[in-house]
């Protein structure tokens, strides 16, 4: 980019280093938008393995989204129990299905493609229990909308790297990244930061000494010098 700011240069360095270190990211197969939405709700506060197991059980137990929407709450909770927080996730899934069906008369999210990113996000987040991260993932993964999802890994690592201040929240972190990098980088950088968070920049005991970002990371440099405890921004 011409006339790059120091922050843009740093963001570009992070993007390129992670691409060199982890390569072009791969991810689980992407689903139809409504499947992705339900899977993302199931994935809140649990592992990919457990959320995908819950999703498969849901698909086996119910023949249609209509059946999921109309199922007794206790049955739906039992079906998705492995994903945890079933008492929250089951009503969220049913609320989302009701909202989609009430608008469309069918279970189809394709109308989001014709909305602006802001409109589509506003529509999704108006559903109880669908937060900005869930909406952002569905819009980026399924509709290729220019939005940068911020989950717990992205938030922690962005703070450690000094991309955002320690008091930043998911929305301000997302806006910061979106202002710093081209939208074509959102998808690969999001996935590579998550991988970095799982494999290297873990919440506890991050592996700073072997991290490809150490020279641009104030937290890592301070930690290597044993100035700050392991769990800060964890
Ligand atoms: S240097 Fe440490 S804290 Fe910084 S990004 Fe790497 S692993 Fe995370």
Largest sheet: none
- Please tell me the total number of domains: 2
Averaged pLDDT: 91
Indicate the CATH class of the largest domain: Mainly Alpha
Question: First CA to last CA: what distance?
Answer: 32 Å
How would the global form be characterised?
A: globular
Question: Which spans have pLDDT < 50 for at least 5 consecutive residues?
Answer: none
CATH topology of the largest domain: Endonuclease III, domain 1
Rg for CA atoms: 19 Å
Series of secondary-structure elements, N-terminal to C-terminal: HHHHHHHHHHHH
Give the class from helix and strand content and strand pairing: mainly alpha
Number of strands: 0
Which percent bin holds the helix content? 55-70%
The CATH superfamily name of the largest domain is Hypothetical protein, domain 2
Task: Tell me the fraction of residues in β-strands, as a range.
Answer: under 5%
